[in-house]
Design brief:
The complex is a heterodimer of chains A (405) and B (505). Chain A is mainly beta and 405 residues long. Chain A is built from 2 helices and 32 strands. Helices cover 38% and strands 23% of the residues of chain B. The chains are: A mainly beta (405), B alpha/beta (505). At the A-B interface, strand 4, strand 5, strand 8 and strand 12 of A face helix 5, strand 2, strand 3, strand 4 and strand 5 of B.
Chain lengths: 405, 505
């Protein structure tokens, strides 16, 4: 009985001892954070310190904006510390950390703020050319960054200077979401706008935006010619007035202007030119017969001109035709122009050959020194009677039943 | 002697002649066929750009704060694609400590920040496997010339697993807000500035699902003709309907089916497969059966960089069926503990945990479980699942005791025996193997234990099968033959003796 009791006591003692032993067993050495600022300026030395009497080397996970890493603890007497490596502490943003292998979770965040002053003003402006008139705009974005390439803190003041013609302006904007930006609206006039930015004493270089004239508005056209005769030789020049946009800016050089010409029978002719200093010039050769042209010019899809009437007088009233060599050589001419001078070379003369009212051929030749001659080959045109129609400059002559032999 | 030498010499000569001729003939014929192959015209223009899905975190664009140029869909998709690639490349850079590709997605000044960390990590032999699971970018400013974008990416869920000297140190899931400036350079949207504005640990707490009211009496189901290929081209809903009717009349109330990951289209789930699955669930509902859907069948990668693809798969399937009346529970994966050795225990468990989180974030109603292959694994992640399921193919006499032991460990979660059963195979490969009688006795005794302890069960399986893919049991004929005879119904469609004990003892 006694033995049994003793045995029981010994047993229970053993159990109790082992329980207390369990309790006092050195558990994982926990660390106590030594409170310290959580706000740091980028690039400063950051050391997280903990109280803990331990010989263990701890590891700390830490992550900044760009990536994460592990760092090892260093011992300093009864303290252990972790030094955040430079390549993490130079970047602004939240840096979060966690000590690995402690019983209680030891974690936290540090706020790394950018330096006060900028060392560069990253400036982006676009589009580089905008349309005058107060509607179109460009956006200027400025990212003031410190010398560690961190965008400066929210509400950093950035002044934006603008120069255009006589006006110079200065606006203050504040950074938000890493950037400062401003809409640069186009003025009414065209020209070149110069811009620059400044933040806390640091100035950017000069940027420019081209304020281009807006699209063309309606215009008038004129014609210019040496004489009014339809000689098929002289050139008529069409010019436009100085084409302006809606704000009275001369439109940009190189605008394409089409001149559409409608003649007497409704056929369309076209000539074109590009603008220089707002004026488009286009040329066209005179017709070789009497014409009434109506001319209208377009900047396609944008603007049009008035309709211009241009008349060309008849120059060839009549011409002579001589038949030689068994009527097979037909000479047309001399064809005379308005001062009875021989018509300049190149007037078209057409002969149409019919037999028994049936059309056979048409021969076209250009005049040379006032004359054109046609030879009707015997092996093509057998001996017999032919109807011959000769026309030039819309003047027609008919020779019926001309015998070829 | 000379004669034999001569013969050997001659035959070597002849043989080498033959070989040389054969080689020449092969070379000439391959040259000939090369020159006779028409060039694919589309190749000249490089019009076919094959984009592989490699990184698909959930991206939700908020667009209410854009103060600049109006964003169009085309540009937005380019920004999204480049921005995600930037994260993807960074993930790879940190896991391999290599700089490859980083310069394509970070500007010259920004990439330095990554290179510095990588360089230090490389020196210290630190590698970090990481991925991001969701992004919620919101555009603040799209510059008028379309060359600069300032955005805030809110609630970026980042998972990281840190190794030192190839030893696992910690895993961490963070949720962070970033402000980002991207510039369009050389046709790429590159990150110029990246500032983390806030970060906290991701809250992994989930709510419990609606409890399952009925006691599960179930069976693992594959159609007899198409085991492990239920949703293939031989899919026939009539057969499935008939089988479900049979299961119902056998007094069972649940089936467990399997959704193969690759077959269903991985990250891009095929609509036709979803329709087939819907038909199966409809058929189950018609027969008053509940369904446990086992996801990720035939999947075994678990790599951190594969997670986003897994997520897109799960998302589609869970969203499609979370309101289906026939659904009982989601089984994340069948027997994942078998991959512990080959894929690493930590990999598999972390993978399971985040898939559970995802399922529970989409479907708050239905239970989530993991089909552990044995009792000893059953307590892994027991706090994360709603239902602890395990399989049992060991000694039937030890079952009751082992079950009671498990019940001791897992007190607050319902248990279900997700698979159990035995073969009736006796034949050439196992001359002293089982028999139909032995199988029937096994089920009778097991059912008695279930009845006594009120154990929910799902047996393996309804049918004996004719062909079993080698991915399931391997090539060994004694294993394959045994596996072919686990059914309650034999290959001729006749009920075996065990059928009597399919749901009662």
């Amino acid at each position: 009985m006694n033995l049994k009791n003793n045995l029981f006591l010994v047993c229970s003692l053993f159990v109790m001892l082992s329980i207390t032993a369990q309790k006092t067993m050195p558990k994982k050495h926990d660390l106590i954070r030594i409170p310290l600022d959580t706000l740091f300026v980028a690039g400063s030395t950051i050391r997280l310190q903990f109280e803990g009497n331990t010989a263990i080397t701890y590891q700390m996970y830490c992550a900044n904006s760009y990536g994460s890493t592990l760092i090892e603890s260093q011992r300093q007497g009864s303290r252990i510390s972790f030094q955040i490596p430079n390549h993490l502490s130079i970047k602004s943003g939240i840096l979060n950390w966690r000590v690995v292998g402690t019983k209680q979770k030891l974690f936290g965040t540090l706020n790394i703020v950018p330096k006060e002053n900028p060392s560069s003003l990253e400036t982006y402006i676009g589009p580089p050319s905008i349309e005058a008139g107060g509607i179109d705009y460009s956006i200027l974005v400025v990212i003031p960054t410190d010398n560690l390439d961190n965008p400066l803190k929210q509400n950093t003041v950035v002044s934006i200077q603008q120069q255009f013609l006589a006006s110079e302006r200065n606006n203050l904007v504040f950074t938000k979401n890493l950037i400062a930006f401003k809409y640069i609206y186009a003025p009414i006039k065209s020209g070149r706008m110069l811009l620059s930015s400044e933040s806390l004493g640091l100035n950017s270089k000069e940027y420019d935006v081209n304020v281009m004239p807006a699209i063309a508005t309606n215009f008038t056209i004129y014609s210019q010619r040496n004489h009014t005769y339809a000689d098929g030789n002289q050139i008529t020049t069409f010019t436009s007035s100085v084409i302006k946009d809606k704000n009275n800016n001369t439109i940009s050089d190189g605008n394409f202007v089409y001149f559409f010409i409608t003649n007497k029978v409704g056929a369309l002719l076209k000539t074109s030119g590009t603008t220089i200093a707002g004026v488009a010039t286009a040329k066209i050769i005179h017709p070789d017969y009497e014409e009434d042209w109506s001319v209208k010019a377009y900047v396609l899809g944008m603007a049009e001109s008035n309709t211009l009437k241009v008349k060309y007088k008849k120059v060839v009233e009549n011409f002579e035709v001589t038949f030689l060599k068994n009527n097979r050589k037909i000479t047309v001419g001399p064809i005379k122009s308005f001062m009875d001078q021989l018509i300049p070379d190149g007037l078209q003369v057409k002969i149409s050959i019919y037999k028994n009212k049936k059309f056979l051929h048409e021969i076209i030749k250009s005049s040379r020194e006032g004359f054109v001659s046609f030879e009707l080959n015997q092996s093509i045109y057998k001996n017999g009677n032919y109807d011959l129609r000769i026309s030039t400059a819309k003047v027609r002559k008919l020779f019926q039943s001309t015998a070829l032999w | 002697m000379v004669n034999t030498n001569k013969i050997i010499f001659k035959s070597i000569l002849l043989l080498s002649y033959l070989i040389i001729t054969a080689v020449l003939l092969f070379l000439i014929s391959s040259l000939y066929s090369y020159f006779n192959t028409g060039a694919d015209r589309s190749k000249i223009l490089h019009t076919k750009i094959k984009k592989i899905d490699q990184y698909l975190p959930k991206v939700t664009w908020l667009e209410d704060g854009n103060l600049g140029r109006e964003m169009n869909a085309q540009t937005l998709s380019e920004i999204e694609s480049n921005y995600l690639d930037a994260w993807y490349i960074k993930n790879i850079a940190f896991s391999t400590n290599s700089k490859i590709g980083v310069d394509a997605y970070y500007t010259e000044s920004a990439r330095k920040n990554i290179f510095n960390i990588i360089q230090a990590n490389k020196k210290e032999k630190i590698t970090i496997e990481r991925t991001t699971l969701s992004h919620n970018p919101d555009i603040f400013l799209f510059s008028e010339d379309g060359q600069l974008v300032v955005l805030e990416d809110k609630n970026v869920v980042e998972y990281k697993r840190v190794f030192k000297d190839n030893k696992f140190i910690l895993e961490i899931t963070e949720i962070a807000n970033y402000k980002v400036i991207l510039l369009l350079e050389d046709g790429f949207w590159r990150i110029r500035h990246l500032v983390k504005e806030s970060v906290s640990e991701f809250n992994k707490k989930t709510k419990a699902s609606t409890p399952i009211s009925k006691t599960i009496k179930g069976i693992n189901y594959y159609p007899q003709a198409t085991p492990w290929n239920m949703f293939g081209s031989d899919f026939d809903i009539k057969i499935i309907l008939k089988d479900f009717n049979l299961i119902k009349t056998a007094n069972l109330n649940t089936i467990r089916i399997f959704v193969p990951y690759k077959d269903f289209g991985k990250a891009k789930v095929s609509e036709s497969k979803l329709n087939k699955l819907r038909k199966v669930l409809d058929a189950a509902e018609k027969n008053d059966l509940k369904v446990i859907i086992t996801l990720f069948d035939f999947y075994g990668n678990y790599e951190v960089l594969d997670w986003t693809l897994n997520h897109r798969h799960v998302e589609v399937i869970v969203t499609a069926f979370k309101n289906h009346n026939a659904l009982l529970a989601w089984d994340v994966k069948n027997e994942p503990n078998l991959d512990f050795d080959s894929r690493g225990r930590q990999n598999v468990i972390s993978w399971l945990e985040q898939i559970i989180l995802l399922i529970k974030s989409i479907d708050k109603k239905h239970a989530v479980t993991i089909g552990w292959s044995n009792i000893s694994s059953a307590s892994i992640l027991k706090d994360k699942v709603d239902l602890v399921s395990f399989h049992y193919y060991e000694d039937k006499d030890a079952f009751e005791e082992r079950y009671t032991d498990l019940k001791e460990i897992i007190k607050d979660k319902p248990l279900v025996l997700g698979e159990f059963g035995t073969t009736s195979y006796r034949g050439f490969w196992k001359p002293f193997g089982s028999s139909e009688e032995k199988q029937a006795r096994y089920y009778k005794e097991m059912q008695a234990v279930f009845a006594k302890n009120k154990i929910p069960f799902i047996s393996w399986t309804l049918y004996d099968f004719n062909k079993i893919p080698k991915e399931v049991v391997g090539e060994l004929p004694w294993r394959r033959n045994a596996q072919e005879h686990y059914g309650f119904i034999n290959k001729n469609g006749e009920k075996k003796k065990s059928f009597k004990y399919i749901s009662k003892h």
